[in-house]
Amino acid sequence: MKVAFVTISFAIVAFSGVHAGNPPLAVNIPCLSGREKEGTTVPSCTSGLFGSSCTDVPSNLCARVYDDEDCKGWELDVPEGRMNFRFFNPVWYWYRNDIESVSVRKGCSLTGFDDTNWTGQSATIVARSRDRHVNLDDEDEYEDLDEEIESLQCTCTN
Fold first, then answer.
1. Which long-range contacts (CB under 8 A, 24 or more apart) does 1-8 make?
2. Helices marked H in the chain — which ranges?
3. Is the pLDDT of residue 12 over 70?
């Protein structure tokens, strides 16, 4: 009973300043998209409710793709080159239309396509000076590929 009372009291105290004509306490925590800004790139926000599981992409890979947001669920290592997730392939069909987040190694770019054979709608995620982690559904330019990727292509410059 005391816990409930303390919680209610805290809520009343915390929000009572708003009604007295005082502005509410605000904290500005920007969610950076990874787009270029003033000559630099910044990582995208990938901190879900329970935090991100994203880690650096190993130097022998171009990217990693994941089943769930924040680099969770199954993961698939993506070397440089192309991958096709055909529905009749007993190995690759598992990943077809199921990718929700990607990590691209610095100096690399990953292009996802919503059809097999590298056709259909596509979007490219570029990681310039650091690895880039993206939840596809969180960013306007990639949300159409969320759980829609049927083929991909990954290249690196370094």
1. none
2. 2-19
3. no
